[in-house]
Amino acid sequence: MTSPRELIQNGLPLVAVGTACCVLLALVTGNRPVDLILTVVGGAWGSAESAMATLSKTPPLLLTGLAVSLAYRVGLLNIGGEGQLTLGALTTALVARSDWGLPGGFGLLPSLVCGAAAGALWAAPAMWLRQHRGVHEVISTLLLNYLALHLADYLVRGPLGDGSAMGRSVEIAPAAVIQPWFGSAVGGLGPAPLMALLLALGAWFWLERSVWGFEARAVGANRQAAAAAGIAVSGWQWRLFLMSGALAGLAGGIEVAAVHHRFYAAFSPGYGYDGITVAFLAGADPAWLWAGALLLAGLRATDKWLQLALGISPNAIFVIEAVLLLTVACRTALAAGLERGFGRIAARLRSAGGGSS
What we know:
The protein is mainly alpha-helical. The protein is 73% helix and 0% strand. It has a single domain, classed as ABC transporter involved in vitamin B12 uptake, BtuC (Orthogonal Bundle). 43% of the residues are buried.
């Protein structure tokens, strides 16, 4: 597990670059940097409604981030979360049209299980192509995303739609809806964020505290050494990659059950791709994914406030996200540069203090 000290050290470049990005964006758009920062913070957490809107966006981000993290732990990179989430959402919406005669909240279970299974099945071809044809999973999962999005769009506008021109499925059964604890059925806050958090913490416990998790981490650390130690490298890569796809599919299913209550064309605003940023913001450590999910959920929740209060396009949020992801990719070099810079400042302060005395 990443220690708090390591997290702080790795987070310093993110804070520095993120702040610099906000300052530059404010200056370019003719606003004061402090106004932009206050708008971002206030839009995400400034009221109970804003906080609920932010928290309601965390489940798909947290689960797709967990999907990327699990695959990364065995040396694989799942870029296909967007397609897996989309087909998981569509499958959940179709299965959840019936409550299956189950009591209470159990009417939701078959639809979520089927949604997770759809995500896993959509991840399987990429793993097969890597194992048997040497095709890198980044290429295959990226291409499978486009196939999934166009397939879902055709199905929901055609044979699986509700018959309208809206490009949507019929509403799910009331027994399959994740009811909110606070607020309205549309903009309220229910158990979905807690469900996603418990899954992430469960994955961390499994990876860090079980023999199977140790074997999976050994595969990611050194495949040759793991194979020499008798660990089934190919088997663990298959298992974790299918689990990754299942989590992305489950993210789509929970989004249907908790927020939309049906499937729409262009269902996801990019949660599958944002999961990559969430995963690497936390160093692919499931114990800290919640922090990255909250950060990106806050940015997504505040986009309309930027337009209303400061006249900045909501697309500016994507610029900030891209800068954060690039910062993560260059985190080691940036951290070293910041450490050298702070060291020089401290040395000059010490020399100035010694000279004055």
